[in-house]
Amino acid sequence: MKKTLLTLALMALSCACAWAVVTDGQTYQEVDGVKCVNQWMFDRVHAGKAYVNHPLANTKARTATLNEGIVYVAHSEAKLIVVAPGDTVMGAVIYRFDAKTGEELEPLDLTLDGRPYNRFLGATSIGSDNFGHIWLAPMTSDLQPIIPFYQVDKETGELTLLAELDKGDAIHRTDYLDVMGDITRYDATCTVMTVAYATADPGHTTLYRWWADYEDDFNGGFRGQPSIEVTEFYPETKAGFSLAPIVKMVLGEDPEDIDEYYAGNNFYIDCFDTAPVLYSAKGNILDTFEEVDRELWPQNQPNGCAEFVLDGERYFTYVIADMNGDKHGCQANVCKFDVPEDEEPAFAAMKKCWQLPADSVGKVNDTGLRVHCFGVEYGVDDEGYEEVTLLTFKAYNGFGVYKIGRNVKSSEPGPGPAIVGDVNGDGEVSIADLTMLASLVASETENERSDVNDDGETSVADITSLVNLLMR
């Protein structure tokens, strides 16, 4: 029997995914009293085969977000589901990871009205609002006048339709959405924005915006209209937004004025053909990379950026390079707007703090997905110091989580689920563990890790449990 189990385990190795938590192995220099520490990585460079063999190493696992200490990654068409005899669909799945330890949590199967959600999520977003809710929206084509906008139940994966966002008269393809405020409109108003996508130069000039008051439905966010045509671009030779543009709204100045704070009246737009540009809700340019040191300019114009505030100072993170970068691979810069308190943050005043990761998450071609996702979450440590948790995610290459603050310390990651069954204690589950376990059972001995099924003894039943782990 033991020989049969060992044979089964060998056959299972081709599909086994051992995930032991790793870090990027880097030490980041303290900048103005602020530290940056990697918590864990799950990517091609650092996690290796554990990532490559995981379902997330897929071009349909495109966007991710950070919400209440958990990383959520949306994967469309991830799972074949039988809904009736002879009727199957490819359902979407959200994979989840503990942001502190890297432990993989139970995934969520997305459902809508009790059925598997099988609409292609495409390039569009999963994201978080500012009050702990998760939202999701699929891409829409230039033939679809409505963008369905959903809330995700974080316990069950059930989708609830929040709104059908009407594009109005300007019907173009939309990809990546951004949301600010409260999608339930209980604690704050809510603003949703996106940018029209075009596959050919010069691109569209359309910017979409919707807004909902506390008890009202979503309406056009430009004086009642859902879109405006932007006339200011950088560089001036541009005449529209090109491939896969993103928009990222910025928090207001006064947290006490809750409606203004979450209104998103200023926002960044990042396209495939330039560096990020800061706009106002009137569609005019507020700031560009014109005066920025050329060493800080993005390479090959990847898409992705986010802003956060720490101890009253503003920071800006953006993609320095995608998989095509020169000596870079899907990395982000974190910069500080190094200006006096009474002055407005400006790109020209950016001071580079860190490049994350210092090496790379990977340089494998992602078939043109382009967008690089960031998630930001605020917190306070045990000693009362402010800290920021930052997620950096690049589809088909990997992701990682960092802590930034004056008192952050090196992480002490807990085990991922594959540590169950790590009989030899090398940090992963493999055929070596099964070999050792079989030897322990045969010799009627045990070690502190050999009770795989946690029944209080080491026996053939543990071999069966370990084989099942390897065959998952």
Question: What's the short story on this structure?
Answer:
By secondary structure, the chain is mainly beta. 9% of the residues lie in helices and 37% in strands.
Protein architecture, described:
The protein has 472 residues and is mostly beta strands. The protein has helices at residues 2-12, 49-52, 258-261, 431-442, 460-470; strands spanning 35-43, 61-67, 70-84, 87-98, 104-109, 111-112, 115-116, 126-128, 134-136, 146-152, 158-166, 173-174, 178-181, 190-197, 206-212, 219-220, 227-229, 246-250, 266-270, 277-280, 285-287, 305-310, 313-321, 331-337, 350-356, 372-380, 386-394, 398-405. Helix 1 (2-12) runs antiparallel to helix 4, helix 1 (2-12) runs parallel beside helix 5 and helix 4 (431-442) packs antiparallel against helix 5. It is globular.
What is this structure's SSE topology?
Layout: H1 2-12, E1 35-43, H2 49-52, E2 61-67, E3 70-84, E4 87-98, E5 104-109, E6 111-112, E7 115-116, E8 126-128, E9 134-136, E10 146-152, E11 158-166, E12 173-174, E13 178-181, E14 190-197, E15 206-212, E16 219-220, E17 227-229, E18 246-250, H3 258-261, E19 266-270, E20 277-280, E21 285-287, E22 305-310, E23 313-321, E24 331-337, E25 350-356, E26 372-380, E27 386-394, E28 398-405, H4 431-442, H5 460-470
Parallel strand pairs: 6-11
Antiparallel strand pairs: 1-28, 2-3, 3-4, 4-5, 6-7, 8-9, 9-10, 10-11, 12-14, 13-14, 14-15, 15-16, 15-17, 18-19, 19-20, 20-21, 22-23, 23-24, 24-25, 26-27, 27-28
Helix pairs in contact: 1-4, 1-5, 4-5
